[in-house]
Design a protein that fits this description.
By secondary structure, the protein is an alpha/beta fold. The chain is 35% helix and 22% strand. It contains 14 helices and 17 strands. Helix 9 links the parallel strand 13 (283-286) and strand 14. Helix 10 crosses helix 11 (343-350) and helix 10 crosses helix 14. The protein is globular, with a radius of gyration of 21 Å.
Amino acid sequence: MLIRGQTLSFAANPFRAPPGDSLRHNRRGAVRVEDGRIGAVAPADALLPRPGEAVVEMGEALLLAGFIDAHVHYSQTRIIASWGARLIDWLNRYTFPEEARFADPAYAAEVAQDYLALSLANGITSASVYCTSHPASVTALMEAARPLGLRLAAGKVMMDRNARPDLLDSAERGHDETQALIARWHGVERLEVAITPRFAPTSSPAQLEAAGALWAAHPACPMQTHLSEQPEEIAWVAELFPDAPDYLGVYERFGLAGPGAIMGHAIHLTPRERAALAETGSGIAHCPTSNSFIGSGLFDAGLAADIPVGLATDVGGGSSFSMLRTMAAAYEIGQLRGRALHPAQLLWLATQGAAEVLRWGDKIGNLEAGREADILALDLASTPVIAQRAARAEDLWEQIFPTIMLGDDRAIAGLWVAGRKLR
């Protein structure tokens, strides 16, 4: 198959190189898809159809890698946009009662289908997903994702304290149930199992030790947790772990830092934590709509120059399934911190940046020969207000930026997962 449109791919990390020079753009380009992979990306007049090859004309749509959601709770799909809570109250008032419903495998399967449909409708082709403490919640998501061919990481939440009794496991059970899920699902087609201690306050030292041992035994798995989201949470961690130098130090103590570690939020970091994240190669999932909706704080996207950072919806604390809206929120938070993120940087965070956080940076995240063919076509004139603004664009960035700031699912003109058209 040959897909024609504008093509956009990364030549460099726009946080480390001049953003305007970091991308390759063909105003009239083409992408060849072969056996679920990208065979070539080139100007359309240099990549002519082969005999019998299907040609898909996308006109002026922008072809780029599918969006990657670095941190999301599929179990919170139905509590998105719940009013008036900060983090700890959010968990107790909304999250834990909803997650208790996932003891019913049929309910988990129903929500998994809804979550995947909403994500795909917004151009998200891969994600790192929190399930619940019920192993069946992971199986429900994997069984829904596998027929779609998605590259997905998902994990059973491990928590053995400070939550509803019907959601608690134990250090031993959290370890054994996660290990069984790894044996069943990790490496099945494009699926991975993430080791998922929810966050330090809901895991005892024994459970964090078990999670660290599990990751040491299965280093190819990602490890996801939360870090320094709100000041109240950080103070709670200091009470629970008085011997730790800081919040990140808790995870370091138990072997839960390093490449493949996905730290959700990471807003209120100490200088030592910033240096340690860079030194260990741990990644950050930046969740801007969540950070503003729950009142957590303003993330410093400048960390992406030294630390792997990917963008994340964090549904349902995050207030949108749209990665475009998430990029817009990242821009707005950057402005409040005195840094106007370039459109190339925003696109990086939603694609290649997130892929690198998840250690998928050689597989997806960029429109490049040899990558898996997760491809998104963006309509850069999807609504009247976007169209009239883009029509005045003097360069590529002025053409793209209105869609980042104002776009939604209507901008998703086409979507291919491993070369298979899903939208």
